[in-house]
């Protein structure tokens, strides 16, 4: 068994929480739709399984599965990442398209934001034209009603020829009806969009060539093939069909059209949507500006938005996570709970049961499983990560993050990213591993690589951040130097990579969801899910590390490794003892930082040394979990290359900082 | 103000010299022509009277007013018939002091008279035409609060077009610009989006005239 696979099994890392594996015997229900229309919440309503939901597009980057029992029938429900159209732009959209094209589903639930029905019905028409067993959920029906939008569901149903149900996922309204309609879903018939003479001729010809196989109509597959950049790849069905002929038809068609096939097809769809909604939906001529809208503008205007942004980071990250989480809570758990109430009885029991000191050391003492592994995980990491995810969940659910993205886009362009990358970057302050997964929402490979490197190199995760804040506590100059060095590295690395990597600069486009008041229930359950995921990842690793260290100490390997590391830490001006912390750092950065924390408490390090150590460890290689995710997202070769570069950079920058302090005669 | 009799002279000569109409040399010319010469609108050249540069302009203006009057009588007042010509002749002298511009605007800057003859464009027509061209401007040149309909997308890059379409930016979609800096924020339907300048440059919008004309204080 490969080590990677084993560790992933141990960590349960393949997905967030106990995901039921795909069950081929059960009929499938696909939940699809535009981003940020409430698919995930509806999924939770249908299956009772919680998946992370937030108020911004692109929360779901992977597929979730759950079960739905409708009467005697049992279905497997699949929640998919949001898609704007059948022609995917980003990776996560591609996932959804592939699912629709590749899997014969019992039902396809198209979740539509009722107030934006005009924009989203195009996809409904496409799904219906494909002959999929469609059920339309007009979600957020309450919001649409509040805005004065009236939709005649009966007539819409007649025109589309498929079931239409009004739902409110947040309260559960209409869900029972939806379940009933899902159970009796039938392939859609009778929708045929007129794409205009040129396209129609081409579609007919290509459809003939492809032939009617599979669950998606030949007409739809033909149209998708004509739209794709390279027929047979993008958004095309997995069965390639008679590619040659279709390519030929595509080329001829493109010559006959003024714009791309996609453009003409979308215009035709828009016209069809207009016809479909005529007499079915009415929209008020104007709507008054709500408080949320006013607040939204306040947050987006640079003059008011930037101070708010700084305040959010200061109070949310520094005060709440740094002071409360990493300060008050850690002190309480560490000093009061562990040192006073847990360690003494544990030591008594262990020494009582196990007579041999060598074996005693496995559990207690400086590196014991309980006194070190469990204490680090529970007393240091847990409160910090917990407070971070509370803050982050509130930010997510309020819809603030996309507004942050639009404020910061211009700055991020300089380092080869766009505003969209703000979300993985901020998430990285919580957990770099999760953040690396979220880089999937970025458009180009170039952006993904830049974001991955910056996350691995410069963004300290909350655990690490908390420990470092604790480490440099009471030394504001050292803290500022550390922050400055890391920020400088962030900018420098970004500038450098964006210069070196070929490819075009990114463009920024993002939906700004309405601001909403976060619901306590969702914040709690989301924080819980994430902390549980995180803990599952961290805890075994900490125990494992303690055991490895114990084995190493017993066999003498530990001392040998430390001896090997000593010159390296001496090179950057640190005493021999810190080699231990760096060895821990190979397991997890924060584990290493936590080791330093103990040294600092013992007063073994000067301010300069602490700063150098903090800088080096922050830039240091991420934890094993992140390494594995990087490998999954970017490939082994790229990951090894990045890791090697990061290792060299971390120590070089540490050494450089040390030299600079010496030359300038700085004492921090 | 030019006396009506002089205007008649200028009109006849303009039609003759510029549009090549036959000159009906009426005897009433005498005194009015003398007055026009004094005003520097006509000059004696050989044995014929000709329009000076100033005179030609004045003549063009009279013709313009005459034909606008015809349109006004016919299109708005539904008058006309056999008296159209006669009424227009008296009307043309009334349309003074910017009244002709108001009428021209009211009629939507018409280009030909009911007889199919060209109406010489006035300054207001030129302004309107410039406005019509200016009206379609890229999203990045709009001002916050501005509304309009998407006219076209100025890119052939299908990827960019695809993004626009995903946001509902299609020719004909109504769009409102909310903010220009640091990113462009706009609303389509009930959704708001933020895009960068590169994308905002590609969206050409037919801007509606200013939504709120300055309100007059109540009297």
How would you characterize this protein structure?
The complex is a heterodimer of chains A (668) and B (219). By secondary structure, chain A is α/β, with parallel strands linked by helices. Chain A has three domains: 3-183, 3-Layer(aba) Sandwich (Rossmann fold); 197-282; 303-664, no CATH class. Chain A is built from 28 helices and nine strands. Chain A has helices at residues 3-11, 39-47, 91-102, 117-129, 141-146, 153-160, 175-183, 197-210, 218-227, 243-256, 261-277, 291-300, 302-353, 357-363, 369-398, 400-414, 422-428, 432-438, 445-457, 462-471, 476-500, 520-555, 557-571, 578-585, 589-601, 607-619, 624-634, 636-664; strands at residues 28-33, 64-70, 73-79, 107-113, 134-139, 150-151, 163-166, 281-282, 509-512. In chain A, the strands form two sheets. Chain A has a six-stranded mixed beta sheet with strand order 2-3-1-4-5-7, with helices on both faces. In chain A, strand 2 and strand 3 (73-79) form a beta hairpin. In chain A, helix 8 (197-210) packs across helix 9 (218-227) and helix 15 packs across helix 20. Chain A is elongated, with a radius of gyration of 28 Å. Chain A starts with a helix and ends with a helix. With 219 residues, chain B is an alpha+beta fold. Chain B has two domains: 1-121, Orthogonal Bundle (Arc Repressor Mutant, subunit A); 135-207, SH3 type barrels. Chain B is built from eight helices and eight strands, in the order ααββααααββαβββαβ. In chain B, the strands form two sheets. Chain B has a six-stranded antiparallel beta sheet. Chain B has a two-stranded antiparallel ribbon with strand order 1-2. In chain B, helix 1 (4-17) crosses helix 2. Strand 9 of chain A pairs antiparallel with strand 7 of chain B, so a sheet runs across the interface.
